């Protein structure tokens, strides 16, 4: 319902002001109107940042900005929180994987948002990194799309963040993404990844990664943008159909609908396991890649191994 419309008798009202609600929030039963939804999300992101000390004075935060809804919400929220922080700056980084029929639209959307918010914007591509776009790299190996894409995107983002002088990399991972990752790592039997710290896989060699939206549900982020007319209606990546994440996502959202709280419970279980496990006993110690010198857990980093398998 739109603000100002009459509600049918007995209809729900905003839990804070009695206006017509636009959303039933995840977690404890609450309905919020548009104004309270916007305030609630911005306050919750600010609280996550404060409580987990994700931002410090003089930080330069590189926002991984695909132009999609999560990173758009993240960039808007951080730009609104920015005046309250001491000498903190933002730079948006968009990685162009080179995916026909998908990435051009999202890059245009990303450029429009950064221009409107007056935030520095850097665009880097897989072609700059390995000499070919993702579509070309994947010929004959389309089912590996997301793992190839993930490895190269991480490297492209780290490099660009380093070049931009960033001290943190912020990503738009939301509560749904976090719950999906817990389930995916469990399904893959990947304990080291499962117990990686929630806030940032920070190590002296890496620029720490932060996830200010990790406690906010995907539908709340979508509604936050929608009520402000900022929702980016963009095409979906054509490789999504090969992704394990797509199956896990649909399974978890149907479970969440039938059994509210499922996603939060999964994340809670992961945090409990995280506290119990001695990470050093299950993870390989960090070394330097024999090829490129980047930190990694084996002899070669994932990018160098991928390059080798692609003949690059
Ligand atoms: Fe990359 Fe897979 Fe995401 Fe497409 S769906 S952008 S291939 S990770
Ligand atoms: Zn390497």
How would you sum up this structure in a few lines?
The protein is built from 13 helices and 9 strands. The protein has 312 residues and is of the alpha/beta class.
Q: Major sheet: order of its strands?
A: 5-4-3-6-7
| Unreliable stretches | 198-204
Query: Helical residue percent?
Result: 40-55%
Percent strand equals 5-15%
Shape: globular
- Please, how many helices? 13
Order of helices and strands: EEHEHEHEHHHEHHEHHHHEEH
Rounded radius of gyration (Å): 20 Å
Sheet of most strands = 5 strands, parallel
Structural class comes to alpha/beta
Number of domains: 2
The CATH C-level name of the largest domain is: Alpha Beta
SSE layout:
Layout lengths: L22 E2 L6 E2 L1 H18 L8 E5 L4 H13 L7 E8 L6 H15 L2 E6 H5 L3 H4 L7 H19 L4 E3 L4 H13 L3 H4 L14 E2 L7 H9 L17 H15 L3 H15 L2 H4 L4 E2 L6 E2 L5 H9 L2
Parallel strand pairs: 3-4, 3-6, 4-5, 6-7
Antiparallel strand pairs: 1-2, 8-9
The structure holds iron/sulfur cluster (SF4) and zinc ion.
The site of iron/sulfur cluster has 9 residues, from helix 6.
């Amino acid at each position: 319902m739109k603000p100002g419309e009459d509600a049918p008798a007995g209809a729900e009202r905003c839990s804070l002001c009695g206006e017509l609600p636009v959303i039933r929030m995840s977690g404890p039963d609450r309905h919020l109107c548009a104004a309270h939804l916007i305030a609630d999300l911005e306050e919750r992101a600010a609280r996550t940042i404060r409580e987990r000390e994700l931002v410090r004075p003089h930080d330069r935060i590189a926002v991984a900005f695909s132009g999609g809804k999560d990173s758009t919400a993240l960039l808007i929220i951080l730009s609104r929180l920015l005046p309250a922080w001491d000498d903190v700056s933002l730079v948006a980084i968009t990685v162009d994987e080179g995916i026909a029929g998908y990435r051009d639209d999202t890059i245009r959307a990303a450029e429009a948002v950064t221009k409107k918010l007056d935030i520095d914007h850097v665009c880097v591509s897989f072609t700059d990194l390995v000499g070919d776009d993702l579509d070309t790299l994947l010929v004959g190996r389309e089912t590996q799309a997301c793992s190839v894409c993930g490895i190269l995107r991480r490297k492209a983002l780290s490099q660009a963040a380093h070049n931009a002088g960033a001290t943190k990399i912020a990503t738009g991972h939301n509560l749904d993404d976090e719950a999906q990752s817990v389930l995916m790592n469990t399904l893959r039997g990947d304990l080291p990844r499962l117990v990686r710290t929630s806030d940032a896989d920070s190590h002296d060699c890496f620029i720490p990664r932060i996830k200010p939206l990790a406690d906010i549900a995907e539908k709340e982020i979508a509604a936050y943008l929608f009520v402000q007319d900022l929702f980016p209606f963009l095409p979906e990546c054509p490789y999504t159909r090969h992704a394990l994440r797509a199956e896990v996502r649909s399974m978890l959202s149907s479970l969440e609908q039938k059994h509210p709280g499922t996603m939060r419970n999964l994340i809670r279980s992961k945090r409990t396991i995280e506290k119990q496990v001695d990470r050093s006993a299950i993870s390989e110690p960090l070394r330097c890649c024999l090829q490129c010198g980047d930190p990694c857990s084996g002899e070669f980093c994932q990018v160098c191994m991928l390059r080798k398998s692609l003949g690059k």
